[in-house]
Amino acid sequence: MHELILICREDDVETVSDALMEVDSLAVSVEDADADTDAEKALFGEPGMPAPKLGWERSVVKALFASEAEATEAATLVLAQDWARDVHVQTIQAVEEQDWVRLTQSQFAPVEITPEFWIVPSWHEAPPQAKTVMRLDPGLAFGTGTHPTTRMCLRWIARHRDLAPTWQRVLDYGCGSGILAIGAALHGAHGIDAVDIDPAAVTATLANAAANQVQLHAALPDAAQGLYPLVIANILATPLKLLAPLLSAHLAPGADLILAGILERQAEELQQAYAPWLQLEVSDREDGWILMTARRA
Ligand SMILES: C[S@@+](CC[C@H](N)C(=O)[O-])C[C@H]1O[C@@H](n2cnc3c(N)ncnc32)[C@H](O)[C@@H]1O
Predict the structure, then answer these.
(1) Which of 13, 84, 91, 280 could form an SS bridge with 55, CB 3.0 to 4.6 Å?
(2) What is its main location (predicted)?
(3) Domain span including residue 252
(4) Ligand 1 atom showing the smallest separation from residue 221 Cα
(5) 293 assigned binding-site residue
(6) pLDDT one-digit tens code per residue, 224-235
């Protein structure tokens, strides 16, 4: 395998990447050319949202090819384009064969939610202190347990497991990988509806539930029907505000509503959006994200 490494401006990143894919690159990745220098500029995004920018002011675009000849030909073709005035070839270099599966797997370690509750990829042993273990591998849908918003929801579930006898129905709205629904099931919940607008999330949730021998119903959002003693939604502040009437209407008397995907500075907007139904409070925080909860009267 050979890697063609190009330097270009942020405005050219998408065109260069598309051109490289068209000339049969096996994979294209973009990095900050100024990484680890004083000129480095971090790009911050929010979960479930598109990247805020496609590249950096000065981007390194790396394209993998099966042979040196293919990489050289691709470089010649890209540089011949009229839009490529500011594109430069840094190098073409041989790439050592790697065990890509093992490399990817090594990046996902078990995640501690509480000392007793762990999310463990299938290729890892569960830590000896783990009493409740969810088996989950990274996949197409959001939710591996590494994001603070997911972790805070799971921590809430684990800390409130004494309420599980009342969780005869649970709604996980925006289920992604199904991690929250499965977490609730592992702590004693029943009658779980896990819904998402993304059909790939519904498929992932069903597969992950089966891998954990958990019973739940995963479907598109219309499947959410009636009242639930526990409603959890980890989406983002804007959709959560729009969903306020819908989520509130699904709360049984005495039900808990758990909301995540909210940044600290968005707490008040959320409180206002839910004020006609509930008084939301901040009940956990991590890395700038907050968990907001409320109990229906
Ligand atoms: C941040 S992920 C959370 C996944 C998982 N529940 C977790 O806690 O890790 C948000 C999920 O909500 C889904 N979603 C976004 N807007 C939605 C909406 N209006 N209705 C239902 N699902 C939605 C997305 O497709 C995505 O899978």
Answers:
(1) 13
(2) cytoplasm
(3) 105-295
(4) 21
(5) no
(6) 999 999 999 999
